[in-house]
Amino acid sequence: MSTTTEGRTPYTVRHKNSNGEKLESCFYASDAYEARLLAMEFNAYIKQHPNCIDSILQTKA
Fold first, then answer.
1. pLDDT for 16 beyond 70
2. CA–CA distances in Å: residue 9 to residues 16, 47, 53
3. For residue 52, what are the domain limits?
């Protein structure tokens, strides 16, 4: 898989909110762990409920 500038790859972070709705956020990160940290930084609900994350998928650029 090709990477984007500075070795970052797009990741999709999927999670459920308090109503059970499935939501997605996309981040450019060096790995899935960094994508998780970015999701926690930019989404207050994920920060308060980190176990709401269902999956972190590497996507094609």
1. yes
2. 23, 22, 19
3. 5-58
- Residue 54 in contact with residue 14, Cβ under 8 Å? yes
Question: How many CB atoms neighbour CB 35 within 10 A?
Answer: 25
- Sole residue written with tokens 């930084």: 41
- The string of DSSP letters for 1-61 reads ----GGG-EEEEEEEE-TT--EEEEEEEESSHHHHHHHHHHH-HHHHH-GGGEEEEEE---
Q: Which pLDDT score is estimated for 61? A: 65
Structural domain total, the chain = 1
- 22-50 residue pLDDT tens: 999 999 999 999 999 999 999 999 999 99
